[in-house]
Each structure stands twice: as structure tokens, then as C-alpha cells.
Specification:
heterodimer; A: FAD/NAD(P)-binding domain; TIM Barrel; 3 domains; eight-stranded parallel beta barrel; seven-stranded mixed sheet; elongated; B: alpha/beta; eight-stranded parallel β-barrel; 8 strands; globular
């Protein structure tokens, strides 16, 4: 086969030498625009797994590469002048220039032809530079600006999205002994550095900031020398006299390239020409060289070119997409870093290390047990004030040994939770049927046979159990089976339930009060959700007279009198909840139920002072909250289950939810239970493990209020990872 | 986890006699269900007709569509056909539905391809209501009709499943891909506070013996040609050894699958016998 490779970077050279090795009869030529010894960039990094694949692919170049390695196992995070080290991450780096030299030599040795200084601006020029137009296979490894991909863009269908942050790729003669993240704030904003050693006497030093910071610092108008001077001054403490160097470096935003089709006829794309992934996970060169390995293997295995190119694409595309997802997470983390500026150094560092979702608490503990213990101790230390209060110790409390975060205590007002795990339960259709309106205490007690099932969540080890969806009145029920708390008799029944649980469980007991609003009068959940009752429906209320589904009952838009009545019903239920002995009270302002219907512009189309601006939409929920807070004992915590996004265009957003959470906090709210979606039937949350975590992160760290997060968390590793990173304070766990 | 076997209703060259014999023997065990697939513009038998025939010669196995492209049929017609099959089989029907991904099936049925998700939602609601009201008779074995499963991988699809259906049916792939989808299904189910757990069904393809493997792979490449190069990957995942079946079943079981239906790719009763042997050998033969 006559193979032409466009681009003499790591991808092109490596593909050339690997394919030549498989079949020396192939006639392979690499065409490179630059001279042999010109290269951009400083060092490139590889993980131990990538290195193992290099060894299998070509032992000779692998040996050469490893001879010139810098290997380290630590990641250092400098934040608020504190350094936190986490070890156990085996990463190796090499100067890009050295890597190219090795690959060029190896190509030469194997008989791959290389032409440097061969600037091809247009595919038609392939014919004019010798007869390269007459190829059996053209491998386009010509980078992000690939002329081949552009020439056949209709077939490849590439898409590029530009990152929001600005960064500049610099070098330094500062010697580092680890991968180093540096975070510095000045009058212009927040800056971060990704730095790593590569050549024995030099390190890569990438400086990044968001666009506003970049503009405020005047870096948009700064030349190369000015940019370097600015960075040297900003990071003077970190550089300790070392200098920064430029290599034709400019401030740019990161382009993420995704390509639908990776090959077309006799042309195949490789490396940066077909995909890019944000530099913060250090995978560009790794992916490019792995592409080369896969392409060579596919050409070896398949006789038909098309079959080989199909196999290459099928193998690599899912791998690249997975990495691009992680890179996207990492990229957006750095773009929005300011959100986490309120975190203390330990959770800040833990958050940073777990940002892409690929590394968890257990992984870090396994990699560096000292780091893991330090995280546990820090977390335990946070619980210290409670511990002293607990035992009336008149001495400074210092944690030497601490359990994992999920087992550390948590204080809400004067309520001490023994751990961070929460369970919720709905007693719909479950004996003892305390929820049946009008049931007498005697009848309730007589149903004691079902007590085991009822009590089960309380014996599962959680620090808090919440009874969800308890209606404040019969017309506030979702289904006829919903529990209600609107009469003294029901309060007695609940009191009996709470008292019966006390001797068998150390869990604190919460109750969530709800009014179903326009989602009321539906059939039991076992028959599906939001299916209207066929008979016996009661009139519904909502912010506006909009039915939930086309065939749902049209609710009445609440008038002032309705609001006062509902508010008073919430207050009455709060009194009864206190009488029943609940430890925590939660108001449901989520999932499109009554209070939430006021929050969302999709369900609130009022023109009075309760509709329109966020302040107006929040007015009624806040009125109810204030009244309940006044009625509920000062010492007991009050939480709100809040929809933090409708997950629908034009709906309530997380940015609005942050403002709402701040307002609730000012009114004495102690905890936000994070929910999303269901405001309208069109809501489409991206369901999956931990789908609420990102929302909780934003509410907690931007509104500065503790959060409880669920979202299908089933393992202690998930809970510990979320808690240690400061993405929530309590985790709702599911049993599987 | 229970293991069922697919009827070869989507494999070209399957005779009526073979289909009937296949169903009979599957009923003898160790399989818990018979599955069918649905394609209009392809050499295949109508899924509900195939299950009706199977119902006549079986008494034990559940009869499952995994899936039927329900939008190709008017809702009333589908409700009646499913209720009939359910009543005639003594309540053994499990109706899996999905939006379908092939334009040509919709063109052949003269049905609009757009807004399928929205219309599937309407259909799900209508099916359940028609059964509950017994409007089109016959009465189904259970008042709420046969279990409804919904397939698909979109966020909207998982919400639809959790809101209206009894469970989820997965379209195929390696255990890890299934595990992600099953997590999404359970996360959505829990988010809607549905009681218990969704029933989760899944499927795979098998062929034993060199000739059958080659024929089976060619069939999968042809059957899934509409997915482009992905068809090659589906063919490559064909289960061809007892070891592969063992690991596949184990992976699905660990990810929380309730019922795994293994589909033939070659219309040959010997394939069924071999699969039965493999499952018995794995101790998965319990009925």
C-alpha cells in the first residue's frame, strides 16, 4: 500500500512507524510543514496505562521514551498559600521535542520516508509535491486545523466548541517534583496554573483564567512579553525567582473538536485532527498515539481497507467520547472555579481531584492513605464543635482518628445527627395505615402487625429519616392514600408512631409537609404517576389555572383567601408535627407541587405581586416559610425541598434557585433538600447515578447553605466522595 | 435473574413449523419467557402474531415483546390485540414498547416519524386506560392489563418509563452499557417515588458452532445495517460460547437485570437445544 501521512506530530509519526513495522512492504511517507527540529509546546504527560500500551506496540521506542522520562506520583495543590499533597498517581512526562526526535529516529530506522518543510495548504497540492496525490490511504494527522478534515467537512461532520476560559501555554526553568496546581487571586480575579516537570530542568506552566478576569487584567491587549511579566509577578511566590518562557505562546480558548465520521473513502483522521480533549486531563498526545496503535492494529487485522477503518473508528470513538466527557467536566470545573472559592483548602483540593467524576474517595484512599486519613480528620474536625457540645468538654477538641465523612456527625440548629446518611419513606399503602383520614388511635395500634415494614427505614443505620409527602389537608393530597396531618387525632397517631420508633432507632425523625397543588387528586403511584382519579377527585389549587397534563383537572388560580387558608394549614400541620415529636420539619417546594408552582415561570403566570419577577414568584413560598418558622420551635431545624431547576427551556433555573436558597436562608432555613424537574411533564433531568449532585454543589457553595442530596446514590463511596468534596452535607441513600 | 429465549421471528428463513416447534420446546424449559422483536420493512413475522401462535402451544413461559414499535399500530388496535393475547394466554403477556429507530418502518406503515416520544407517551396512557376500563374487551387477566415495559435511552424516555410503565427494557450491548441504562431507569423510578423497583428486561444474541456463528454474524450485520458501522460491533458481540453466555448473564445479573432474553440468529432448533444445555450446565436451568 502507498500510504501518505499528513502531519509529523506524535500521531503521524507513531502511525507511520507502527504500520511500517507490521508490513515493511508498505510505502509510507510523512509530510510535515515544519522543519524536523521545530516544535511547539513543552512537555507531554502519559499515565502508566498508556505506557503499557506503548510497550506492547513498539518496545524500541518505548525504551527510548522511558529513558527520557520524568516520573512523579504526587499532585500538589497550592491554595490560599497552603500546599496539600496527594500521592499515588503515577504520571510520566517527556519533552515534546524529545518525543518527536525519538519517533523520527525510529521512523528513519524502519524506512518511513519523512519530508519536512512541506507546507500543504490545499489537498490538490499533494499531487504537486511528488505524486502524493496517488495514495491508497491518506492518514490525516494534521492537527486541530486539519486541511483534510476541512476539505471533506461534509463527510466528516466536525463540530468545534470554544471553551469559555483563556489560557496560555508557557514554560519555566523552575524544577517541580510533582504535578502542581496553583490557585491565586488578585484584584482582577482568579487564576490557576497547571504545571508539571518534563525535562530535568524545565516544567510546563499553563496559566488559565476566565474571560472577565482576562479582560480586567488587560491581557487581551498584552503582547508576549507583557503576558509573561504579568504571570511572573502574579506567581512570584510560586516561581521563587525562576522565569517563565514563551514558545510562540498566545492567550487562547480551548477548542473541543468532535467529529461524527472518522474516515471517508481512502482517508482516515487521527489525533487532534479528529478530536480534542481539554488539557486539564492531559490526554491530547496520549489519545493521538493510542489512535495510531488502534489504526495500525486494525490495518493488520483486516484485509479490506474499509473494514479496517471501520474497526479503528469503532474501537476508538467510544474511548475518546468517554474521555471527552471527563474532559468536559474538568474543563467546566476550571471555567467556573470561582464557585468553589468558598471551600476550605481540604475540600477544595478533594473537589479538584474528583472533578471529572473518574476518581472517587475510595480511589484516593487507595492511592494515598495519608491523604485519605487527612481528609477524614479534617471532616471529623468540622464535627468537633458538636462533639464538645455533646460531652460538655471544656477542652480543645482535636481529631486524631476519624471515620469516613458519611459517618461523621452533623448539627442542624440543636439537632445532632449521628451520621450524614438520610433515608426517606412514604407511607402510602403501607401498614400501619396512619395515613387513612379519620382512623382512630385504637385502630392504628391494632394494625401493629405491619410495624416491621413501617419501622424498617429507621433501623437501616441512617442518621435521619424523613416521612415524605405528608399532606397538610385532605385537599392537599397527591393520591387518596397520602398521609395527612391536619387533625389532632392524626397528630396523636403520628406521635404514637414517633414514640414507637424511639426505642428501636437512633435516627432522628423528620416530616415533610406538602400540598400537591395541581398534581393532586391522582391515582396511587403503583398505577403510574399523575393519572387523575376516575372518581372522588377534589378541586385543585395552583399558582395559575393551568392543568398539569392536557387531561388533568384544571386547578383554580389561588386567590388571597386561598393563600391565607393554605398558609394557615401549613402552620397548623407544623404545630401538630411538634406535638407528634418530630425532630425536623421540611416544606415541599419542589416537583411542581403547590409551593413550587409559584416559583416557576412555566406554572406561574400571575400578573399580581405573586407573579413575574423572581422576587414576586418567591413571595408566597416565603410567606408560608416565615409563618411556619414562627410556629416551629426555635431550636428545631426547618428545611425546604427545593426544585433547583425545571430542566426545561424557559423554566426555573439553578441560577434562580441559588437566589431562592439565599432568600430562604435569610429567613431562617437550615437545609435545602435538592430536587429537579417534574415541574411540568416536559422536564427531562439527565437521570443516572448522582444526577442531583451538580445542582447540590451549586446551591451549597453559591448560596452558602447546607444541602441534602439524593439522586440515586447507593454506595458509601459515592456518598463519601460527594461529602468530602463539599458538594453536599447530607446524602439521601437508596437501598439496592 | 430469569433467562428467556427469543423466538426467531426476526430471522429470515424461519418457517411457521419451526417457530411453533421452537415455542413448544422452549416451554419445556429451562426458559422463563419467549421474546419477539418487531420490524415492519424486513423479512420477519409480526410479533403479536408470532406470540399468539406460541401461546397456543405453550402453557408456562411468559410471552414478551422486546420490543414492539407500538406507534406503527393504532392504539385501539394494539390495546385490543394485546388484551386478546393476554386473555388467551392466561395473563402471560409482557408488552415492551419503544419509539423505534427506523424511518422505513414508519413509511411502510404510513405513520409520521416525528414527535414519536410525545405520541408514545399518549399511547402508554391510552393503553392502560383502555385495559382498565375494559372498553374494548376482552378483560385482561389483571385489571390493569399486562405489564408495560418501555425501551429507549433518552432522558425523556426514562422519565416516560418511570411515570407510566411498570419497567424498562434494554436494547442490547455489553453489561457495562446495560448497567448505566438500568441505573438511569432506577434513578428515574425513584425520583417519581414509584413503589418498589422497575422490572428490568434485557436481551442478547447467541449462535453456537462455526457455521451458525458466521450465519448469525451476517444476519446481525444485515438486521442492524441501519445503524451504519455500529452493526459490525453488534455482530462482534454475538455470544458464541458457554463461557461468553456465563459472563454475559453474570454481568447482567450483577447490574440488576430481572429477565434476560437471549435471541437466536439462526433458525435452527439445534441452537435452542444447545442454549438449553448451556443454561442447565450453568445451573441457570431452574424454572
Amino acid at each position: 500500500m502507498k500510504i501518505v501521512i499528513l502531519g509529523g506530530g506524535p500521531a503521524g509519526l507513531y502511525a507511520g512507524l507502527l504500520i511500517k513495522k507490521i508490513n515493511p512492504a508498505h510505502d509510507i511517507t510523512v509530510l510535515e510543514r515544519n522543519a524536523a527540529d521545530v516544535t511547539y509546546g513543552w512537555g507531554v504527560v502519559f499515565s502508566d496505562r498508556t505506557l503499557a500500551s506503548f510497550q506492547r506496540a513498539d518496545a524500541r521506542s518505548y525504551e527510548q521514551i522511558t529513558n527520557h522520562f520524568v516520573i512523579w506520583d504526587a499532585i500538589d495543590t497550592w491554595y490560599r498559600n497552603e500546599r496539600i499533597r496527594c500521592g499515588g498517581h503515577v504520571i510520566a512526562s517527556i519533552s515534546r521535542k524529545r518525543l518527536l526526535n525519538i519517533l523520527q529516529e525510529r521512523c528513519c530506522e524502519l524506512g518511513v520516508t519523512m519530508h519536512f518543510g512541506c507546507d500543504i495548504a490545499d489537498l490538490s497540492q499533494l499531487g504537486t509535491h511528488g505524486d502524493y496525490g496517488n495514495y491508497d490511504l491518506l492518514i490525516a494527522a494534521d492537527g486541530i486545523n486539519s486541511i483534510v478534515r476541512r476539505a471533506y467537512a461534509d463527510h466528516f461532520q466536525p463540530g468545534i466548541s470554544q471553551g469559555k476560559a483563556r489560557y496560555i501555554w508557557l514554560g519555566t526553568n523552575k524544577v517541580l517534583d510533582s504535578f502542581t496546581f496553583i490557585f491565586r487571586e488578585n484584584e482582577h480575579g482568579f487564576f490557576q496554573v497547571h504545571a508539571y516537570p518534563f525535562g530535568g530542568d524545565a516544567s510546563t506552566f499553563i496559566v488559565e483564567c476566565d474571560e472577565e478576569t482576562w479582560l480586567r487584567a488587560g491581557l487581551d491587549k498584552a503582547g508576549e512579553a507583557e503576558s509573561i511579566a504579568y504571570c511572573e509577578q502574579l506567581f512570584a511566590r510560586d516561581l521563587q525567582g525562576a522565569s517563565l518562557f514563551s514558545n510562540n505562546s498566545k492567550w487562547i480558548s480551548f477548542p473541543t473538536l468532535k467529529t461524527k465520521n472518522w474516515h471517508y473513502g481512502r482517508i482516515v483522521l487521527l489525533g487532534d485532527a479528529v478530536h480534542t480533549a481539554h488539557f486539564s486531563i492531559g490526554s491530547g498526545t496520549k489519545l493521538a498515539m493510542e489512535d495510531a496503535i488502534a489504526l495500525a492494529a486494525a490495518l493488520e487485522q483486516h484485509e479490506r481497507l474499509e473494514a479496517a477503518l471501520n474497526a479503528y473508528e469503532l474501537e476508538r470513538k467510544p474511548v475518546v467520547e468517554t474521555l471527552q466527557r471527563a474532559a468536559r467536566e474538568s474543563q467546566s470545573y476550571f471555567e467556573t472555579l470561582k464557585r468553589h472559592a468558598s471551600l476550605e483548602p481540604v475540600p477544595f483540593t478533594f473537589h479538584l481531584l474528583t472533578r471529572s467524576g473518574r476518581i472517587t474517595y475510595d480511589d484516593l484512599k487507595l492511592r494515598d492513605v495519608r491523604f485519605g486519613d487527612m481528609v477524614d480528620r479534617w471532616y471529623g474536625q468540622q464535627a468537633a464543635p458538636y462533639a464538645t457540645k455533646w460531652g460538655n468538654l471544656d477542652m480543645p477538641f482535636q481529631t486524631r482518628f476519624a471515620p469516613p465523612p458519611m459517618f461523621s456527625p452533623f448539627m442542624l440548629r440543636s439537632l445532632l445527627l449521628l451520621n450524614r446518611v438520610v433515608q426517606s419513606t412514604i407511607i402510602e399503602g403501607m401498614p400501619p395505615a396512619v395515613h387513612v383520614p379519620g382512623i382512630t388511635l385504637q385502630e392504628f395500634k391494632a394494625r401493629r402487625t405491619g410495624f416491621g415494614r413501617f419501622a424498617w427505614p429507621f433501623c437501616a443505620g441512617a442518621g435521619l429519616v424523613i416521612f415524605e409527602h405528608v399532606a397538610i389537608a385532605d385537599d392537599g393530597r397527591i393520591t387518596p392514600n397520602d398521609a395527612t396531618l391536619s387533625t389532632e387525632e392524626q397528630a396523636e397517631a403520628w406521635r404514637w408512631a414517633v414514640q414507637s420508633l424511639a426505642p428501636i432507632s437512633s435516627a432522628k425523625i423528620g416530616i415533610e409537609l406538602n400540598h400537591a397543588g395541581r398534581r393532586g387528586a391522582t391515582r396511587p403511584r403503583s398505577e403510574g404517576v399523575d393519572r387523575p382519579l376516575r372518581a372522588g377527585a377534589w378541586p385543585l389549587l395552583s399558582a395559575s389555572a393551568l392543568p398539569y397534563l392536557p387531561y388533568s383537572q384544571v386547578p383554580k388560580a389561588m386567590e388571597r383567601a386561598d393563600m391565607e387558608r393554605v398558609r394557615d394549614e401549613f402552620v397548623r400541620a407544623a404545630h401538630y408535627a411538634e406535638l407528634a415529636g418530630f425532630d425536623l420539619l421540611q416544606l415541599n417546594c419542589a416537583h411542581g407541587y403547590l409551593l413550587a408552582s409559584f416559583l416557576s415561570p412555566l406554572t406561574n403566570q400571575r400578573s399580581d405581586e405573586y407573579g413575574g419577577s423572581l422576587e414576586n414568584r418567591l413571595r408566597f413560598p416565603l410567606e408560608v416559610f416565615e409563618a411556619v418558622r414562627a410556629a416551629w420551635p426555635e431550636a428545631k431545624p426547618l428545611s425546604v425541598a427545593l426544585s433547583t431547576s425545571d430542566c426545561v427551556k424557559g423554566g426555573f433555573t439553578v441560577e434562580e434557585a441559588i437566589l431562592a436558597a439565599r432568600a430562604l436562608k435569610e429567613h431562617g432555613c437550615d437545609l435545602i433538600t435538592v430536587q429537579v424537574g417534574q415541574t411540568t411533564p416536559e422536564g427531562e433531568p439527565a437521570y443516572g447515578r448522582g444526577f442531583l449532585t451538580a445542582f447540590s454543589d451549586r446551591i451549597r457553595n453559591e448560596a452558602g447553605i447546607p444541602t441534602l442530596v439524593g439522586g440515586y446514590l447507593t454506595s458509601s463511596d459515592e456518598a463519601n466522595t460527594i461529602l468530602a468534596a463539599g458538594r453536599a452535607d447530607l446524602c439521601m441513600m437508596e437501598h439496592v | 435473574m430469569r433467562i428467556g429465549v427469543g423466538l426467531p421471528n426476526g430471522v429470515p428463513g424461519t418457517s411457521g413449523q419451526l417457530l411453533i416447534e421452537w415455542a413448544k420446546r422452549a416451554d419445556e424449559g429451562p426458559f422463563s419467557s419467549l421474546g419477539v422483536v418487531d420490524r415492519l420493512a424486513y423479512d420477519s413475522y409480526d410479533p403479536l402474531s408470532a406470540l399468539a401462535v406460541a401461546a397456543a402451544v405453550t402453557s408456562r413461559v411468559r410471552l414478551a415483546t422486546t420490543i414492539v414499535i407500538s406507534l406503527l399500530r393504532p392504539t385501539g388496535t394494539l390495546a385490543k390485540a394485546a388484551a386478546s393475547l393476554d386473555a388467551l394466554s392466561g395473563g402471560r403477556l409482557v408488552l415492551g414498547l419503544a419509539v423505534g429507530a427506523r424511518r422505513e418502518d414508519f413509511e411502510a406503515a404510513g405513520v409520521d416519524y416525528h414527535e414519536r416520544g410525545k405520541r408514545l407517551t399518549e399511547q402508554l396512557i391510552a393503553l392502560r386506560t383502555l385495559w382498565e376500563e375494559g372498553a374494548l374487551s376482552p378483560r385482561t387477566e389483571y385489571p390493569s392489563g399486562p405489564p408495560l415495559l418501555v425501551g429507549g435511552l433518552s432522558d425523556a424516555g426514562f422519565a416516560r418509563m418511570a411515570r407510566y410503565a411498570d419497567g424498562y427494557v434494554h436494547g442490547g450491548g455489553p453489561p457495562r452499557a446495560f448497567a448505566r441504562a438500568a441505573d438511569k431507569a432506577r434513578a428515574a423510578w425513584r425520583d417519581f417515588r414509584r413503589p418498589g423497583q422497575p422490572q428490568i428486561w434485557a436481551q442478547g444474541y447467541f449462535a453456537f458452532g462455526d457455521t451458525a456463528i458466521a450465519t448469525g454474524k451476517a444476519y446481525l450485520r444485515d438486521y442492524y445495517a441501519f445503524t451504519g458501522p455500529f452493526a459490525g460491533r453488534i455482530a462482534a458481540e454475538l455470544l458464541t460460547t458457554p463461557q461468553a453466555i456465563a459472563q454475559f448473564a453474570r454481568g447482567y445479573e450483577e447490574a440488576g437485570c430481572d429477565e434476560l432474553v437471549l435471541f437466536p440468529t439462526v433458525p435452527d432448533l439445534d441452537q435452542l437445544a444447545q442454549l438449553a444445555n448451556v443454561l442447565n450446565g450453568l445451573g441457570r436451568g431452574a424454572l
